[in-house]
């Protein structure tokens, strides 16, 4: 069943305060401008050329019912939007989008990275029909989520819950990764039963001793610590859970070495079924670790400040901004400080961010991962951008100078 779309406004005269809605980085996004798509293709092209800026940003096409049908981003809004109304354009999708739309919206950003983040925000919020990449219904990725419970366990979630004890990802959503997360729970003997199952740890006093649940197959085969029937204490279960978290956090060597050693021992004892089973466990855990390391290792090393400018330095409306990136994701966008008060405020913010980054106090939620993916993709595509970045220490030193360079 198709979901009812949100109408942005009824007609061309409606006020355009914030038709795109709120953003995570208000300092990095300008106001929203609009243009009615009337007249010939040449008329539209002339209006775009005269009104749209040569700057990075996002744009959206709204159909005649007031529904946002497509969202895009560009490093140069004017150049990109002209392609939708060019007589030389033969791309079917662009022709259909422009032909069915009655309104064009655009919003400037201080950097293409912010434009990309804003694009994903709008796609997730409005779910336009013509967008494919980033659409929640078409996502082929998932997150390993530590389910919040007194006896927590891991689950692969396409849409992470609002509350969880931890989250790792994104990783591809396929049968192999689903099996890998299942093997993760099996190897560390963590439960995977329904959330409603009552726990009865061995170190808990129970007023009704006979109320404990019956053991399941995993409890019988000792592939689960079985906290539901009192086979382990809370401390024992938490110890196994910490070992699993350490594996996901990037310390897999001891776990994989232990599995390989068990596999070799089973082979020497001619227990080939067990050896085959352990081989499959090792492959699943290695596959899961491989997916996570590519992204999480980059995040662990990516805390810096990216200075950027909007407009020509000689333009009156030109401005400079600092993108503060912590563990791979943009945390703040601030205007480059130019006086003592602004430098003092920026210095205080940078020191807070530095302390939080060192203490690992910043939460890694779903939005953090999405923004970090955008930043990582940008630096992989444009590695020369790394030369322009400052460390937090360098940015703090600049704030302490009398003049900001």
Describe the structure in your own words.
- By secondary structure, this protein is an alpha+beta fold.
- It has 3 domains: 26-137, GIY-YIG endonuclease (3-Layer(aba) Sandwich), CATH 3.40.1440; 141-299, no CATH class; 304-400, no CATH class.
- It contains 12 helices and 10 strands.
- The chain has a 4-stranded antiparallel beta sheet.
- A hairpin with a 2-residue loop joins β9 and β10 (329-335).
- α4 (112-126) packs across α11 (366-381), α8 (253-268) packs antiparallel against α9 (272-300) and α10 packs antiparallel against α12.
Number of strands: 10
The main sheet comes to:
4 strands, antiparallel
Fraction in beta strands: 15-25%
Q: Over all CA atoms, what is the radius of gyration?
A: 27 Å
Query: What level of helicity do the residues show?
Result: 40-55%
Low-confidence stretches: 9-17, 312-317
Q: What is the H/E order?
A: EHEEHHEHEEEHHHHHEEEHHH
Number of helices: 12
Secondary structural class: alpha+beta
Strand order of the largest sheet: 1-4-2-3
End-to-end Cα distance, whole Å, is 56 Å
Rounded mean pLDDT is 83
The shape is elongated
Give the tally of structural domains.
Answer: 3
């Amino acid at each position: 069943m198709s979901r009812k779309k949100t109408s942005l406004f009824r007609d061309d005269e409606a006020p355009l305060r914030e038709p795109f809605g709120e953003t995570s980085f208000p300092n990095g996004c300008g106001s929203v401008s609009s243009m009615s798509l009337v007249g010939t293709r040449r008329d539209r092209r002339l209006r775009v050329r005269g009104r749209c800026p040569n700057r990075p940003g996002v744009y959206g096409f709204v159909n005649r019912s007031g529904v946002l049908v497509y969202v895009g981003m560009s490093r140069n809004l004017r150049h990109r939007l002209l392609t939708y109304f060019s007589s030389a354009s033969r791309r079917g999708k662009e022709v259909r989008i422009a032909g069915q739309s009655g309104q064009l919206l655009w919003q400037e950003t201080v950097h293409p990275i912010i434009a990309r983040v804003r694009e994903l925000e709008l796609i997730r919020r409005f779910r336009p029909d013509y967008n494919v990449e980033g659409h929640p219904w078409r996502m082929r990725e998932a997150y390993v989520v530590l389910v919040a419970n007194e006896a927590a366990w891991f689950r692969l979630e396409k849409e992470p819950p609002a509350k969880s004890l931890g989250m790792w990802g994104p990783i591809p959503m396929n049968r192999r990764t689903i099996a890998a997360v299942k093997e993760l729970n099996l190897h560390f003997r963590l439960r995977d039963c329904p959330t409603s199952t009552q726990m009865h740890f061995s170190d808990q006093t129970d007023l009704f001793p006979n109320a404990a649940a019956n053991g399941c197959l995993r409890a019988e085969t000792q592939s689960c610590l079985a906290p539901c029937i009192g086979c382990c204490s809370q401390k024992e279960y938490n110890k196994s859970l910490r070992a699993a978290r350490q594996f996901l956090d990037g310390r897999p060597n001891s776990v994989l070495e232990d599995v390989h050693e068990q596999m070799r021992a089973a082979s020497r004892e001619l227990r080939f079924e067990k050896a085959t089973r352990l081989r499959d466990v090792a492959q699943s855990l290695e596959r899961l670790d491989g997916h996570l390391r590519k992204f999480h290792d980059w995040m662990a090393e990516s805390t810096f400040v990216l200075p950027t400018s909007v407009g020509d330095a000689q333009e009156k409306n030109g401005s400079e901004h600092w993108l503060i990136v912590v563990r791979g994701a943009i945390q703040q966008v601030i205007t480059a400080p130019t006086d003592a008060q602004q430098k003092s405020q920026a210095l205080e913010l940078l020191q807070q961010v530095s302390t939080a980054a060192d203490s690992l106090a910043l939460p890694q939620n779903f939005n953090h991962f999405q923004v970090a993916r955008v930043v990582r993709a940008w630096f992989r595509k444009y590695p020369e951008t790394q030369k322009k970045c400052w460390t937090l220490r360098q940015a703090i030193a600049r704030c302490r100078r009398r003049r900001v360079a």
